Amino acid sequence: MAQVFLERMLAARGVAGRVRVLSGGVGNWARDGMIPSLDARIVLREAGIHLAEDAMTSTALAYHRDVVADADLILTMTGEQKAIVGAFDEARGKPILTLRELAGESGDIADPATQGEDVFRVCRDEIARCLERSLDRLLALLGQGRGGTCRGGP
Fold first, then answer.
1. Residues 6+ away with beta carbon under 8 Å from 12
2. Which residue range(s) make up the domain with 94?
3. How many structural domains are present in the chain?
4. What does the angle CA 6 – CA 148 – CA 60 come to, to the nearest 5 degrees?
5. CATH code for position 95
6. How far apart are CA 30 and CA 105, in angstroms?
């Protein structure tokens, strides 16, 4: 959800082609090629984002460290994810923040998987709120949107 919200916000700012956003997973359940869940697609549709089942697939970062190596900024949803990615050699020296840290807050945004649409809605709204609050800071960290890649957690 964070990837598609951020892509939409970047497009609205006119920097979509200059900042690449990719999503990856780090949990034991992270697998390459997983499609967005039905719950995620339903609650995104409610926010005006129509995400096709095959519009994107997941990347297991443990097996694709090159994705981490190529990132200019790494965003995660939780402190645990931040620690996992931060332990990768490829992340050394890169800014790694949770989405709430980027927004100037503390705490995690928990994975809503298997918890139903209502939990996905709460997560969707929290992701959108944090991204809206932090977009200027994110662009500044990436050099005012003149380029860069932002990698995110689930």
1. none
2. 2-152
3. 1
4. 70
5. 3.40.50.2300
6. 26
